[in-house]
Amino acid sequence: MKWSRASAALLFFIAMASSAQDITIRAVASGATLRAGFAVGGSRVLPEVVYIKGDMTRLEFQDGGQTDYILRDGKARASWLVNEKARVVLPLGNGPSARKYFFNIDRPCADFSGSCTKGDRSTVAGHAATRWRFIAAGHTGPDGTDSGTMWIDDASGLLLGYDGKDMSGRPMKWTVTSVDTGEISPDLFKMPAIEPRKP
C-alpha cells in the first residue's frame, strides 16, 4: 500500500511537471462575498470547475443557470469575465479575481505580501499537501484574502484550497474536491467573437 501511494504521488508529480499536461480542478467556493451561487444561511456556495492548460486557465461557475466564466492568460497577465449568452466580455485585469493556482512549495508567501507559517501535512483531494497559515496579505492572498490557511500540494505547488478572511473580516473559502490530468481542448480557452467592454 505504501508503495502504491508513493508511486501515485510520483506519477502525479511527473504529470504536473510536464508542460504539455493539462489539469482539471473541481472545487466549491463559499462565503459572504460571493454574488453568485446558491444561498445557504447568510452565505453563498458556488461549485466551480477550473481548466488549466499551460499559461491559460478557464474558471467555470456551476450555479445551475448562469453561463459566466473567467478566462485568464497568465503570460499576458490579463483576465476576462465572459458571458456568451449575454454577449459580454469584461476585462478584469490581474486583480484578486485572477486566481493564482501554483505557488512556491517552500515559500508560498513569496508570491504575495504578508507572512506564512508552515503547518501540518495532510491529504487533500487524494494528494499530499502542507497547510500554511498566512497573515497581513492585504488583498494579495488567494482570491484577495488577507489572512487564513491554505493547502499547497507538496509535489507541484498547486493550490488545493484555502479558508480565510478578507480585510473586512468576511469569511472566504475554496474547497478542492478533485484534481485530474488529461488533454483539454484548446478551443476551451479561445476568446469568443465578442467585443470586450472598456475597463
- Calculate the mean pLDDT score and round it: 84
Number of helical segments? 1
CATH topology: outer membrane lipoprotein receptor (LolB), chain A
Total strand segments: 12
Shape: globular
Rg calc: 17 Å
Which helices and strands, and how do they pair?
Elements: H1 2-17, E1 23-31, E2 38-40, E3 43-53, E4 56-61, E5 68-73, E6 78-83, E7 88-93, E8 115-124, E9 127-135, E10 147-153, E11 159-165, E12 171-181
Antiparallel strand pairs: 1-3, 1-12, 2-3, 3-4, 4-5, 5-6, 6-7, 8-9, 9-10, 10-11, 11-12
Structure summarized in a few sentences:
The chain is mainly beta and 199 residues long.
Q: Can you give keywords for this protein?
A:
single chain; 199 residues; mainly beta; outer membrane lipoprotein receptor (LolB), chain A; twelve-stranded antiparallel beta sheet; 8% helix; 46% strand; globular; disordered N terminus
